[in-house]
Specification:
With 610 residues, the protein is an alpha/beta fold. The protein contains 17 helices and 26 strands. Bound molecules: 2-deoxy-2-amino glucitol-6-phosphate (AGP). The site of 2-deoxy-2-amino glucitol-6-phosphate has 15 residues, from helix 9.
Length: 610
């Protein structure tokens, strides 16, 4: 889970690399480095810590050259340190490599190379690559790379430079993302498009088993066996400013506030007319297949899996199709989950999460079809699935997923409507009612933010003393409880647990004392009365209650110490609106505690290792 970038051209190479790395810092940020071709030798500059440390070093040393590679790291093998940071070199420092992924057989390769006399400096798996290249290099880096990759097992996006062939970069991909950016008289490689967006809007999306041979004038895409591959040019439509903080203190708050727009984009042209009607042609599955589905399995991790819980609840209620949700890291070992009558729904913001990808592969191997709900067009999850439903939420940079979460739920809701319609499981009037209610969600999210955002901030301050939280929910808002607790844990580092409210009496109630705050989504609908009962149990034991309830609900005041009001919608759709206050609350608590919100400790945005 690292970010890699490479550049060839007339600009100041280290500045281009730094710019790219800044955009990739969300992929890892415990150390960073560059290797630049300077007058026939490679200058390698690395630093532990944030990118700013490397930036300071580069500003002092100003390495001049027309080609270079860079890396921002999230440690997997070997702790964060200057030595372990990339680029890694061969024995003599002629070859430099940056890598994202894991070389599974690195210990075996390392021992073999050491026995042959190679000297290793770091504890990383990556370092075997430059030594293998050194072993196989006979004046042609491309051939050396092809040969070295035959020895390697595991996942990689690897980019290499050699001092003897200035003006050449060779990169290869197996399971870790890689793009090649097309410029005029200059070219780029990177883990992800935002890294090159400032310089070009055209790119090749490199697939597994492919490599690119790049010069200032040319990009050749080949298989790793060396066969030419004809790739379509991918035109990037994102605006570079979209990926900036837009004047906010953190990406997270910017992205929370962007939710009305993100939700609008998710709906896009999918709900049409005054009727209204639903158009999800893009999902490609035939009606016959949709009617045949006997079971749905959600394939996702973390926040995305909670979006799957909320959407899955809706599918079960509307379509009567059972939905199983398990985190992808566990799911990939539950081999009896998939067959031909099962639909896997893979949910992933980044589209690069390794656990999710593994579970998708298993599902497809066993005959299931997979629908991907992702944010990143052309990502691995999107490409490895049978069909795609893009959430179109725009780039999400903050490590804590926010706008992607609510857009993922919304995409799931749309799919639930489609399935219910095709299977004849919903009355047309009910479907139209729900579609109309979905269309209102973006405005309702905006209304909530306009009316209640300051109140949520005041509550975050009022409860800043609290070091233990329980988040509760029932039915569709069980997911809100799980997501609320995760948000507070990951960015404010506060103990928080999410529970199905009905489970309280089976254990967690013992945790409730005056030191405990309970946040609970109690929206009007089927689960309302029982949820009130749960709040009563908590207050009877001295716990403080913050309820997320509907506007106009007077009853709730009797059961809660404080209330956050959200607009009223159908209970099935309510997790979209209830998800926003839990994000905002966690954000303000973390901000008041001075936490590093966009880059919480030990975490990275895109988890491309299992
Ligand atoms: C969310 O706030 C987390 N950072 C994390 O749980 C995330 O949702 C998970 O790693 C899945 O990522 P993905 O959506 O990119 O697959």
């Amino acid at each position: 889970m690292c970010g890699i970038v490479g550049y060839l051209g007339p600009r100041t190479t280290y500045e281009v690399l730094l710019e790219g790395l800044r955009r990739l810092e969300y992929r890892g940020y415990d150390s960073a480095g560059v290797a630049i071709q300077v007058n026939g030798h490679l200058e390698v500059i690395k630093a532990q810590g944030k990118l700013s440390v490397l930036a300071d070093l580069l500003a002092q040393r100003k390495p001049e050259g027309r080609s270079g590679i860079g890396h921002t790291r999230w440690a997997t093998h070997g702790p964060p340190s200057e030595i372990n940071s990339h680029p890694h070199c061969d024995c003599e420092g002629h070859i430099a490599v940056v890598h994202n992924g894991i070389i599974e057989n690195y210990l075996e390769l390392r021992e073999k190379l050491q026995a042959e006399g190679h000297k290793f400096k770091s504890q990383t798996d990556t370092e075997v690559i430059p030594h293998l290249l050194e072993k196989y290099y006979r004046g042609d880096l491309e051939k050396a790379m092809q040969r070295a990759l035959k020895d390697i097992q595991g996942s990689y996006a690897a980019v290499a430079l050699v001092d003897k062939q200035p003006g050449l970069i060779v990169a290869a991909r197996q399971y870790s993302p890689l793009v090649a950016g097309i410029g005029e008289g200059e070219n780029f490689v990177a883990s992800d498009i935002p890294a090159i967006l400032k310089f070009t809007r055209k790119a090749y999306l490199i697939d597994n088993g492919e490599m690119v041979v790049v010069t200032e004038q040319n990009i050749d895409v080949k298989t790793i066996e060396g066969k030419s591959v004809k790739k379509p040019v991918f035109q990037v439509k994102w605006d570079a400013a979209m990926a900036e903080k837009g004047g906010h203190k953190h990406f997270m708050i910017k992205e929370i506030l962007e939710q009305p727009d993100a939700l609008r984009q998710t709906i896009g042209q999918r709900i049409r007319g005054r009727g209204p009607t639903l158009n999800l042609e893009e999902t490609k599955f035939s009606d016959a297949f949709l009617k045949r589905i006997k079971k749905i399995v959600i394939i996702a991790c973390g926040t995305a899996s909670y979006a799957g819980m909320a959407g899955g609840y809706c599918i079960e209620r509307l379509c009567g199709v059972p939905v199983i949700v398990d985190v992808a890291s566990e799911l990939q070992h539950r081999e009896c989950m998939f067959d031909k009558s099962t639909l896997g729904i893979a949910i992933s913001q980044s589209g690069e999460t390794a656990d999710t990808l593994q579970a998708i592969r298993m599902a497809r191997r066993q005959g299931a079809k997979v629908l991907a709900i992702t944010n990143v067009i052309g990502s691995s999850v999107a490409r490895e699935s049978d069909s795609n439903l893009y959430i179109q939420a725009g780039p999400e940079i903050g490590v804590a997923s926010t706008k992607a979460y609510t857009s993922q739920i919304l995409a799931m809701l749309l799919f639930a409507m489609k399935l219910a319609e095709v299977r004849g499981a919903i009355k047309p009037a009910r479907l139209r009612g729900l579609l109309r209610a979905i269309k209102k969600l973006p405005d309702q999210a905006a209304e909530f933010l306009a009316k209640e955002a300051k109140h949520v901030k005041r509550l975050a301050k009022k409860y800043l003393w609290c070091k233990r939280y329980l988040y509760l929910g029932r039915g569709p808002n069980y997911s809100t409880a799980m997501e609320g607790a995760l948000k507070l844990k990951e960015i404010a580092y506060i103990d928080a647990e999410g529970y199905a409210a009905g489970e309280m009496k089976h254990g967690p109630l013992a945790l409730v004392t005056e030191e405990c705050t309970v946040m609970s989504a109690v929206v009007e609908g089927e689960h309302y009365e029982k949820s009130l009962g749960n709040l009563q149990e908590i207050r009877a034991r001295g716990g403080k209650v913050i309820a997320i309830a509907n506007e106009g609900d007077a009853e709730i005041e009797k059961y809660a110490d404080d209330v956050i009001r959200i607009p009223k919608t159908d209970e099935l759709l309510s997790p979209v609106l209830a998800g926003i206050p839990v994000q905002l609350y966690a954000y303000h608590v973390a901000d008041m505690l001075g936490c590093e919100i966009d880059q919480p400790r030990n975490l990275a945005k895109s988890v491309t290792v299992e």
